[in-house]
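Section 5: illustrative case.
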């Protein structure tokens, strides 16, 4: 049984855990991951990257995850797969380093630092300060490495970062907490419980179904309480010192609550917390044995239960020995002579532990150079020297045909919309209500990620970048409101469309208001060239939309090239606007000397524009997630002429084309039955249109990644965030086993 459960860890003998002088008192088993060397490598890689990107010197004070008995991550994730351990260590070291910094700050300063840190990790938000931007640089490459492990796993981490999983409870009011039960409620929020348990599953490459989760829910609650109490017990002295530094009389720690609410001494309070820890462990073991008696318990659930018990004991043991809780004033551990780059952490799994630490960093496919504005400026301006016409690409028909953009792709979500309110809040309610409703719906933050990714190279001032992001988001939100009316769409991201709640007239008025706000944002920047770009692309948006509406109303079928030209004007206008405005806004980039760079960047933007729209067309027909968000094959209800549909009509047999057109014309504007839509999709599938569309998308994806590589070489600075953006939208996994 033990061999089947514990595949990647070794037990620490009980006499070692409880040796003379040991602070440990746990009754749970203790195990350490066999690749503690990889865990250390991940921690040291983070320290090196913090020094490189954040440049505040705080990494020199960091004890973090490394300890005399082993790395935190080796104990917290004892059964972690070797190829995943380094990235998890990097992630947790990032969290620990940030946490250490705030302990030296006042409460208000710590709150501000926590907000800046959480904002930096939420990639769909635009950093407001340079420090946030520096911290943000640490995240994308970490996610790219996870894509090497698996797309689903990487997407989970993207979601965790986007949901602000590292936000903590400094904003909570401790005076509102009167009992240990109330404290535990707040402690769960601070501990990031959902994230912790998800990461434990990720470390083991395990999934728990809702039924499985229900089986272990009680055990998970007990373990969560034990882990929180264990942290409180061993971190008490350090947190006392932190409270003095912050000038705060209260400490969010169970030891403090025992002292203050039960009027007992510090030593008595510590003993009571110790008793609670031991009682929690006993309760877990009792319920574990009872549950394991069930003959219907799946083997993977049994393994989770056993590993969870080990995590409880192993974390306790690490806390009892680590400098973080026991010797935080001592000098941090010495850095190894050679630090493995984050891009080499996964590869350590194939190297023996004896050789893994201290080896030179493996060479990356991309250029490894400092990611600073001065490096970007020096490399770009020294590589290319020919004059540039920023609008050159618009006069190239073959390029124009390839450009499309963010409206359909941004179905991935509606981002924050800024509403400058010069009138009273009450007077603005009718006009802002539809906008605020739509902006509250889930968002993937695609456009903001593109702004941030381009800014890796262009270094637009933060205030200007925020304004430009708001301008494009205002336009996009407006276009979604109008599109839903023009297409008669009942749903937007799984919720009723704005006009279904606020009425068509009010929604049109609010959408029009957003155009005035976007124009005001550009006007505020006092840059005539930006206003010219803004108006040019706005004109393209309306012209492209007119083509789409004309074809739909008159049931006219364009060629594929005509369709791509339409989307280059309509949705491609958003991406062109982002690129052109960023180029005009940068203060460290000479447009006159960088024709090659901008030409290549425009090609990438072209590819991404087409990819966004055609991907949306394809997913609308085949994705279960799209069906839940928008309704099954909603484009067919609207009579929209999508890329796969045009392919089926123009490239398929005359018979299938006639049937497709006949059904669309006969039921134009009316909701079709599920059976009818399934038949239409089958006709497209039989005509090879879905396969050709997927092949087209996969090739575009490869082209985008190739252009990113060329841009990185040209600039001399990697852009992992741009790669993450492409990876999060990837459809390559859908083609596995389907390509002929």
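Designed sequence:
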């Amino acid at each position: 049984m033990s061999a089947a459960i514990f595949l990647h860890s070794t037990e620490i003998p009980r006499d070692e855990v409880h040796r003379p002088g040991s602070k440990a008192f746990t009754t749970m088993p203790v195990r350490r991951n066999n690749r503690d060397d990889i865990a250390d490598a991940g921690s040291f890689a983070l320290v090196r990257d913090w020094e490189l990107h954040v440049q505040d010197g705080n990494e020199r004070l960091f004890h973090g995850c490394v300890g005399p008995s082993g790395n935190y991550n080796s104990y917290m994730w004892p059964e972690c797969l070797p190829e995943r351990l380094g990235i998890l260590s990097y992630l947790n070291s990032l969290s620990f380093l940030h946490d250490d910094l705030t302990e030296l700050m006042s409460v208000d300063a710590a709150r501000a630092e926590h907000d800046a840190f959480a904002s930096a990790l939420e990639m769909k938000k635009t950093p407001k300060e340079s420090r946030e931007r520096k911290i943000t640089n640490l995240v994308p490459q970490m996610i790219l490495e996870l894509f090497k492990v698996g797309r689903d796993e990487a997407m989970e981490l993207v979601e965790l970062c986007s949901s602000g999983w590292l936000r903590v409870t400094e904003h909570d009011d401790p005076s509102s907490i009167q009992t240990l039960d109330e404290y535990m409620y707040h402690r769960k929020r601070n501990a990031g419980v959902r994230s912790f348990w998800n990461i434990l599953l990720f470390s083991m490459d395990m999934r728990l179904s809702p039924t499985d989760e229900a089986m272990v829910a009680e055990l998970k609650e007990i373990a969560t309480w034990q882990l929180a109490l264990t942290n409180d017990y061993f971190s008490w002295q350090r947190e006392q010192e932190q409270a003095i530094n912050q000038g705060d009389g209260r400490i969010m720690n169970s030891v403090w609550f025992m002292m203050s609410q039960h009027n007992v001494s510090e030593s008595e309070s510590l003993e009571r917390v110790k008793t609670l820890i031991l009682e929690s462990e006993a309760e877990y073991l009792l319920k574990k044995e009872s549950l394991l008696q069930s003959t219907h318990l799946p083997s993977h659930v049994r393994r989770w239960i056993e590993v969870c018990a080990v995590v409880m004991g192993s974390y306790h043991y690490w806390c009892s020995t680590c400098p973080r809780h026991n010797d935080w004033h001592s000098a941090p551990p010495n850095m190894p002579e050679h630090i493995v780059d984050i891009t080499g952490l996964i590869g350590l799994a194939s190297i023996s532990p004896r050789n893994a630490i201290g080896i030179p960093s493996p060479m990356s496919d991309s250029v490894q150079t400092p990611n600073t504005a001065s490096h970007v400026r020096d490399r770009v301006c020294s590589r290319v020297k020919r004059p540039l016409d920023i609008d050159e690409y618009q006069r190239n028909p073959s390029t124009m045909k390839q450009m499309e953009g963010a409206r359909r792709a941004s179905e991935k979500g509606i981002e924050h919309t800024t509403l400058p309110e010069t009138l009273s809040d009450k007077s603005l309610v009718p006009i802002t209500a539809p906008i605020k409703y739509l902006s509250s719906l889930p968002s993937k933050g695609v456009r903001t990620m593109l702004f941030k990714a381009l800014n890796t190279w262009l270094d637009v001032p933060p205030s200007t970048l925020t304004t430009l992001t708001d301008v494009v988001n205002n336009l996009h939100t407006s276009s979604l409101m109008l599109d839903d009316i023009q297409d008669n769409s009942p749903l937007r991201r799984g919720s009723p469309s704005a006009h279904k709640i606020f009425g068509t007239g009010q929604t049109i008025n609010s959408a029009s208001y957003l155009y005035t706000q976007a124009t005001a944002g550009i006007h505020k920047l006092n840059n005539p060239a930006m206003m010219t770009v803004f108006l040019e692309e706005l004109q393209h948006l309306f012209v492209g939309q007119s083509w789409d509406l004309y074809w739909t109303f008159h049931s006219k079928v364009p060629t594929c090239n005509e369709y791509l030209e339409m989307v280059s004007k309509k949705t491609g206008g958003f991406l062109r606007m982002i690129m052109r405005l960023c180029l005009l806004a940068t203060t460290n980039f000479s447009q006159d000397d960088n024709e090659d760079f901008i030409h290549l960047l425009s090609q990438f933007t072209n590819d991404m524009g087409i990819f966004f729209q055609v991907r949306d067309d394809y997913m609308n027909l085949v994705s279960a997630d799209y069906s839940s968000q928008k309704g099954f094959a909603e484009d067919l209800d609207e009579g929209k002429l999508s890329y796969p549909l045009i392919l089926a009509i123009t490239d398929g047999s005359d018979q299938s084309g006639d049937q497709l057109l006949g059904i669309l014309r006969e039921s134009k504007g009316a909701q079709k039955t599920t059976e009818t839509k399934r038949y239409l999709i089958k006709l497209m599938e039989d005509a090879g249109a879905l396969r050709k569309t997927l092949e087209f998308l996969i090739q575009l994806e490869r082209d985008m990644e190739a252009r990113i590589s060329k841009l990185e070489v040209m600039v001399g600075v990697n852009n992992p965030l741009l790669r993450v953006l492409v990876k999060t939208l990837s459809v390559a996994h859908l083609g596995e086993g389907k390509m002929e």
